[in-house]
Amino acid sequence: MPGQITRAGFIASGALFALTGKALAAVPDGDLAYLRLLVGVELLTQDYAATHAGDPAVAQMRADDGAHYRGLANLMAQSGQTAATADDVDFSYPKGTPALELGWQLKQLSLGAYLGAVQWLQTPALRLPVGQIAANEAQHLSAFAHLLGKPLIGNAFATALPISTVSDALDRYES
Question: What are the tens digits of pLDDT across the range 38-54?
Fold first, then answer.
């Protein structure tokens, strides 16, 4: 049936969270906006990692971000929406920013985006998977901290970014 996820489809998606297998009922426009925004964040971080995948930790992050993207795309499909793909966006990066520092900045953006979504999502079925991804993004941020010689543990209360801040930040990376 349309909107349902089979066991094979779930496993193939790489998603680490359980979904209902049913279409999500009446997802508010604001929640769909967050899903679209988070898809954009995942496309950006995957694009970055594709060009900086020499480090095994960055390669693992790219794999995780691919799983995040597929999970978000599945949630969008259950909501009757189609997720953007890498072919839909061209990214560019600021000149002069060291590659690892840029990765650190992108992961700070990612974590803030997911925490903002956790704060504002209205659909209960979306909160758990988004929170699970936020936890993984925090691990990614800690891995970049290690690579950069920064403290491995950040603030006790990570910053949740409003949707407008994340959207503006994503605009800076689109060419």
Answer: 999 999 999 999 888 67
Alpha-helical regions (H) of the chain: 7-13, 29-51, 56-78, 99-120, 124-148, 163-173
Positive or negative, the Cα torsion across 97, 100, 104, 107?
positive
Instruction: Please tell me the distance from the alpha carbon of residue 167 to that of residue 165, in angstroms, as a whole number.
Output: 5
Sorted by where each begins, the domain ranges of the chain are 7-173
The pLDDT value recorded for residue 20 is: 44
Position of tokens 């990612």?
110
Which residues lie closer than 8 Å to 45 by C-beta, 6 or more apart?
A: 61, 62, 65, 106, 107, 110
Query: What's the mean pLDDT when you consider all of the chain?
Result: 87
Topology annotation, domain 7-173? Ferritin (1.20.1260)
